[in-house]
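Final report, closing paragraph on structural work. Over the funding period we assembled a curated collection of sequence-structure pairs, and we close with a single example.
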Amino acid sequence: MRKHRIYSPELLKLYRISGIVAFLLLSISTGVKFLAPAENLVEIVTNLIILPFVLLFIIFPHRLEFVSVISSIFSILIIFSEPSSPMGIMMLAVCLTSLYVRGYFTRYRRIKNCIAILVFLLLQCSQIRFGFDIFINSIVINLGYAFACTLILFFTSKYVSNLEQQNAEVRKLDLQEFEGLKRRDAEWLFMIQKKIKYESIAIEEKMTVGAVKNRLRIIYSTLDVGDKQGFLNRYADWEICYGDIFSSKKSN
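Its predicted structure, as stored:
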């Protein structure tokens, strides 16, 4: 069984190390800027806002939405202060990519894409305060970078989609192939697919909600999906089974 490597222990460790490095660099940068606070007030405030999110990402490295928050703040700051810099678009692309990976574009994709485009256009319009010439120049440059980033994301998503279609006939998650998982775990995951809440699972199994959550954390970790959102993003339309016993049959 191929695991969802985005949340593998090795990558989670890499995410955490990256977060620690980012936290140290931001802390040092903020400390240096405090030497001349009047001249660096915006950067200091921005860094102080971002640092808690970096810390949260270190603690919960599977929560890639923290990366989205961090990159979106940097993107807004750069686009507002440096209209000709391509880094603002790059950070916006990081924001959208991390949200895409976490599955936030799985539902209502067109609406969310339109919102993303609208936010981008509003940020671009804010640059008119630098003068019409700079505004037009930054629009042309940033649209070019945005178009390139969009093409990269589009072709990557299509490639992944094609791979999933080619493997459609093996869309079965057999929990018997994972050490430590049980038939009951397959039944629980089927309930998660059906958007049944933890509280309802606890009532049916005559367990506490805390016990259910703890067991599901172990299951998510074993499957390398990080958490509930990661599981649904990866296995939302897969058939869950335990050997020859399908969890869906129990529900039917």
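The mean pLDDT is 82. The two ends are 26 Å apart (CA to CA). We thank the funder for supporting this effort.
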